[in-house]
Design goal:
38% strand, 9 strands, mainly beta, 111 residues, five-stranded antiparallel β-sheet
Length: 111
């Protein structure tokens, strides 16, 4: 399905830095709860993500990620999810996160 450039511009994709990571104990499948700093304009947002194959608090805290920031909130296993972190899904279902190749300012838009 094709979309227009105007459709794409409606999606607010930003860079943020992971502040904290913990297990989502209520999730049916293993998931992590992340707090991500998107800078002054957007602030700190929370999400629950099924990214436990490659990621944990040891290798995510302080790392930058890319996320969609303008979806409506969604309750995911007791967590109010405010963003959707972007990643590639391998054939076996493991998620590999998308991130900038070098450190940038939190909140920068991705085009």
């Amino acid at each position: 399905m094709e979309i227009t450039y105007e459709d794409f511009r409606k999606v607010d994709i930003r860079v943020g830095t992971v502040l904290s990571v913990k297990n989502n104990e209520k999730a049916r499948q293993p998931a992590l709860v992340l707090e991500v700093d998107f800078g002054k304009e957007i602030g700190i947002k929370t999400t629950s993500a099924k990214i436990t194959h490659y990621y944990n608090s040891d290798n995510l805290v302080g790392e930058q990620i890319i996320a969609v920031c303008n979806f409506p909130t969604k309750n995911i296993a007791g967590v109010v999810s405010e963003i959707l972190i972007l990643g590639s899904i391998e054939k076996d279902g493991k998620v590999v996160l998308v991130h900038p190749s070098q450190k940038v300012e939190n909140g920068l838009e991705v085009y």
